[in-house]
Amino acid sequence: MATWLITGCSTGLGRALAQAVLGRGHNAVVTARDVTTLQDIATGFPDTALALPLDVTDRAQIDSAVQQARTRFGGVDVLVNNAGYGYRAAVEEADDADIRQLFDTNVFGAVDMIKAVLPDMRANRAGSILNISSIGARISPAGSGYYSATKAALEGLSGSLQKELKPLGIHVTVIEPGAFRTDFAGRSLTQSATAIADYAETAGKRRKENDTVHGTQPGDPAKAAEAILAIVESENPPSLVVLGKDAFDAFAAVAQAQRTELDQWRDLSLGTGMAG
Questions:
Q1: Does 255 reside within a domain?
Q2: Is the pLDDT of residue 93 over 90?
Q3: Confidence of residue 234 (pLDDT cuts 50, 70, 90)
Q4: Is residue 269 in a domain?
Q5: Could you list the residue range(s) of the whole structural domain that residue 21 is in?
Q6: Is it the case that residue 186 has pLDDT exceeding 90?
Q7: I need a surface site. Which of 83, 155, 167, 185 has the fewest CB within 10 A?
Q8: pLDDT-derived band of residue 184, with 50, 70 and 90 as boundaries?
Q9: Residues with a known catalytic role
């Protein structure tokens, strides 16, 4: 039995993962900004679930959640950084305050969670950290530049973190989901107040009022949760996994396009070195 701490459990993937973890017999600290959304989970698993309020931009709440996990279950074995939200705007359209709040939640919130659990994981020479990213970090759609940037930042940090922690027995995995039937494209999606007409055919097509995919996404959160459990239970967890056929195909297409372009510009790239 392991103890999981999962952020952003009110809906979607976080909620499905919390239910799957508890159903498998593990302990779980399930968190959300509004803890009342978690009461049914806590009631269903009174001995193994601990529901706590947690805004990942609040360091005091982070420290409290980790301490309560330590008191109740002895510590955190698996951290899942799932809390976050989407933001759509052309780069020029975005409001400065919106951008900073997005990075505070999607990047620095995850960083603060990681730093809070690492002392115990290092002491135990064991643990798993899973950072929920997005295929958006790979494909960078028009209109999602800032959201994609938060996920790319999280992935860059995860790559270094994995190299720092693997010798200490701690695993780090990035999860890149494609489109799943969650609240991401609904309540959890925000956008700029400003819309510039010149971007109507690029970023504008991804604005909420023009989005028709919410509720019809191909991905099943329950199956994603089972996949994440399998990753944690693996003897050699991967550093990165994509979830969903759409994500798999998009990742492969981007990788191929990047390789083609790399080869096309090979001579110019190599020509910047010293002669001889």
A1: no
A2: yes
A3: very high
A4: no
A5: 3-246
A6: no
A7: 167
A8: low
A9: 133, 147, 151
Residue 113, domain member (yes or no): yes
DSSP string covering the chain: --EEEES--SSHHHHHHHHHHHHTT-EEEEEESSGGGGHHHHHHSTTTEEEEE--TT-HHHHHHHHHHHHHHHSS-SEEEE----EEEB-TTT--HHHHHHHHIIIIIHHHHHHHHHHHHHHHHT-EEEEEE--THHHH--TTBHHHHHHHHHHHHHHHHHHHHHGGGTEEEEEEEE-SBSSSTTTTTEEE-S---GGGTTTGGGGSGGG---TT--SB-HHHHHHHHHHHHHSSS--SEEEESHHHHHHHHHHHHHHHHHHHHTHHHHHTTS---
In the structure, what pLDDT confidence band is assigned to residue 219 with cuts at 50, 70 and 90? Answer: confident
Q: Is residue 253 part of a domain?
A: no
